[in-house]
Write a structure and sequence with these properties.
Blueprint (H helix, E strand, L loop, with lengths): L1 H24 L17 H13 L16 H16 L4 H22 L6 E5 L4 H14 L3 H4 L3 H4 L2 E6 L6 H9 L6 E4 L13 H13 L3 E8 L11 H11 L2 E5 L13 H4 L6 E4 L1 H5 L6 E5 L4 H7 L6 H4 L3 H33 L5 E3 L10 E5 L22 H25 L6 E5 L3 E6 L1 H8 L3 H33 L4 E4 L8 E5 L13 H16 L6 E4 L8 E4 L8 H51 L6 H10 L9 E4 L4 E4 L1 H6 L34 H33 L11 H15 L16
Parallel strand pairs: 2-3, 2-4, 4-5, 5-6
Antiparallel strand pairs: 1-7, 6-7, 8-9, 9-11, 10-11, 12-13, 13-15, 14-15, 16-17
Length: 775
Amino acid sequence: MGKNLKEAMKMLEDSQRRTEEANGNKVKSGDIPGPLQGSGQDMVSILQLVQNLMHGDEDEEPQSARVQSIGEQGHMALLGHSLGAYISTLDKEKLRKLTTRILSDTTLWLCRIFRYENGCAYFHEEEREGLAKICRLAIHSHYEDFVVDGFNVLYNKKPVIYLSAAARPGLGQYLCNQLGLPFPCLCRVPCNTMFGSQHQMDVAFLEKLIKDDIERGRLPLLLVANAGTAAVGHTDKIGRLKELCEQYGIWLHVEGVNLATLALGYVSSSVLAATKCDSMTMTPGPWLGLPAVPAVTLYKHDDPALTLVAGLTSNKPADKLRALPLWLSLQYLGLDGIVERIKHACQLSQRLQESLKKVNHIKILVEDELSSPVVVFRFFQELTSSVSDPTFKAVSAPNMAPSTVSRERHSCDALNRWLGEQLKQLVPLSGLTVMDLEVEGTCMRFNPLMTAAGLGTRAEDVDQLVAYIQSKLPVLSCTLQLREEFKQEVEGTAGLLYVDDPNWPGIGVVRYEHANDDKNSLKSDPEGEKIHAGLLKKLNELESDLTFKMGPEYKSMKSCLYIGMASEDVDISELVETIVVTTREIEENSRLLENMTEVVRKGIQEAQVELQKANEERLLEEGVLRQIPVVGSVLNWFSPVQALQKGRTFNLTEGSLVSTEPIYVYKAQGSGVTPPPTPSGSRPKQRLPGQKPFKRSLRGSDALSETSSVSHIEDLEKAEYLSSGLEHNTFESSSPEGHPGAPTPQKADKTEVLQKKAEHPEDDPPQVEEPESLR
């Protein structure tokens, strides 16, 4: 029986183990999150999920555009991706013929449109990928044994790739990572410093670098030139660079937005020279407003084997199908549609340039109005210390201190950054961007070739952009002029600390230093934060035109008060005085509230002690017999005690106890010592009706009109008073009974004279107006 029981337990354990293994090998439905649970989702649910992921939560950003507007040409490009997936299911022979036809047609059309004869095309998704393939082709062309020996052939003669200092950021690092080359293989060519554009490659310095590399045993491999730099759209001297590359056997590659102008009827000579280069990279998608369209690298090379090794050509049908969206879109647009879109973008930039030339304080950074469709501009203002001198400019300040010039530079950069953000919000269809240049500072860039076709920018949008710029210029000029005055006023005021924040576009930043403030520490101060919060509330209640903000952005720093832009002339002295007075009142009130609990507690304890002493003194004065219940009543009836009621009052202002005896003796409170008045701020400045705080008083004709209006009101009040006095005197003189206060004849004569003056005020000599300060 024990043996059978043991076998039964073993069988039960084996069965349980097999069940656990089966359950462990089978994936539970609850272990996989998301929509994979169950038997799958239907198509409607999947599309609804995609829509929700695309648009997100509409309640969080109701003002943001859901999806960029896509025209019919955009739908044609998107259709190409779906057709490419469908075409890939064909049999190999049909697929080969169709992909070859699509690739050859697209290559031929692009070469004819952009004047690049007898070229080949490589279509790629990443814009920099084409240049990396071209570098591989150049390496294979110059190093014949590279396929066999690999990088060993590069050791004795290192290749050199020349890039402009104005090239796209990160381009050189990308090439080295893709090619496996060390960073010393890159040579950064500086731009012009004396003659020409500061964003053009210095050709003379480039030739010197090439000669030095050849003497060191290096191989000049490839030069990347710009037909429209990424920042300002300037074009290098491609014709001169082509001659230099032919002389030293260097591969010339050109890229840039200005290559789009090759499709137009008239092309500048500097851009036209790009048609003679060895390769060029173009981005027709943004130029024509085509989404999800690949970039194109056109090149010229006679050896198909090297292009295959470099990866520029492929036998895979999937690689050839990359050109399908562009093949469909070019057929839909036609040559006229392509030229019209590029021409429209160039006209928009030309329209903006002509309009900004007429706007004061706007500086345009252009190289050639005909060759560059990129407009870069910035707000430019004279130095505040020399506003009256029109010949003194901020860029030509040799006699100014470097700190002053640097401060003015940071101030203009902050204002330009604010202006750019405002214009982006007001005119979103303009596609305006804000960028920082090394020499010029913060600028705004209008590049319609990259944005106009996708956003649908029109000429009306450009006019609206110019109108908004003109409306913001008074605010910028006024704010820039007041910054230095505000700084000097704050530095000359005790208790205030000027905070130099170059990124703040307003009048300035100030911090109040309270009594317990640790000046050597930058950590957050709860007491100072409380004072600044109260100051911010008080200033916002004044309903002035200025905007106030509490900072900083990082909570670990001390809080400050940020004063925003000024749209009109502001009285800085009044503003600073208001800040000082308000902060001191807030600090005093906070101290009073903090000490109130302790003062009241001590006062109550002192009052209790004194009242107890008063009770003991009263018992001694009345005697012991009066404290006995029956005897005391009889004694008080025969001989009542005339005792005064004594109490204590607590004066919160002085923090002391005062006897209440004068209250009961004289029946009036306050006959004693009058508490001192509560300290208050300075006398508020007298303002005219409708005048907002911190606005300067009117001068000149406005002041005269103000004085004349006040004098006129005073004359009216005097005439009304005299007329009322005359009526009263007439009533008294007409009464039958005499009156002790009746006017004498002399007074009557004076009354008649005053009445005549009231009836004929024009006969009075003009009064000399008093100065406004005396009034």
